[in-house]
């Protein structure tokens, strides 16, 4: 997404089969002015943040989160996915980054993100054949370590893993991308068997950024543009994007798979539509919508 953009990240943890699970934030390590990890954790607690998604399993960050009761999603970076295709390496990673924090007063780890948007188009298939074996090995290693019932794997995906035909661009026509459809079917079948969720990152801003014809009003939640699909009226791209994923899951036989929205947000710098006013408008619509289930 480019280092020139300043994003306010939000994480929404929710499930298809139930009401909203909770709202949290993403904590990335790339910053020019880093705060001490303990300061960040206290700031989160002071603001009532109870859920956190990380992009790695940094020891200092996890140590700062110990005893905080903040539910955490730790992550394995893409460059380590091939390494995790070796089961012994997967067991070693689980021992070093999960089991060591699994004690009373430790870190409340709920999920392990295996990669980050590994099928994103610009990666040109680099992680296509190593993501599912890594996912399977990590969950099996969690099971072997005795924490598999409470800690589940997931894969945070970019929304480009699914699409709709140009002649029928509605959510019900959503299908996984042809080049990864087989792999995605394997992944969701395994997640379903493991009672684990799929994670998706949804950014209406990126639709606006990527197309001069995309209606700006559709990126927000306050109306002004809509589409109708089989009698369902969609007034914003977030809902339509989410349901496109649901349709894609249904098409491969797993329409009831739990879904986490891992990232959504609006940038405040770096593009003509990246500003504080539009970011405020996006969150003003998003957060009450999540709170209202």
TrEMBL record:
Gene Ontology MF: a single term: glucan endo-1,3-beta-D-glucosidase activity
Class of this enzyme: hydrolase
Taxonomic superkingdom: Eukaryota
Assigned EC number: 3.2.1.39
Catalytic activity: Hydrolysis of (1->3)-beta-D-glucosidic linkages in (1->3)-beta-D-glucans
Name of one Pfam family that matches: Glyco_hydro_17
UniProtKB keywords: Glycosidase, Hydrolase, Signal
An individual GO BP term: carbohydrate metabolic process
Signal peptide positions (record): 1-22
InterPro entries reported for this sequence: GH (IPR017853), Glyco_hydro_17 (IPR000490), Glyco_hydro_17_plant (IPR044965)
Hydrolase keyword on record: yes
Similarity comment: family membership: Belongs to the glycosyl hydrolase 17 family.
Descriptive protein name: glucan endo-1,3-beta-D-glucosidase
Source species: Cephalotus follicularis
Origin organism lineage: Eukaryota, Viridiplantae, Streptophyta, Embryophyta, Tracheophyta
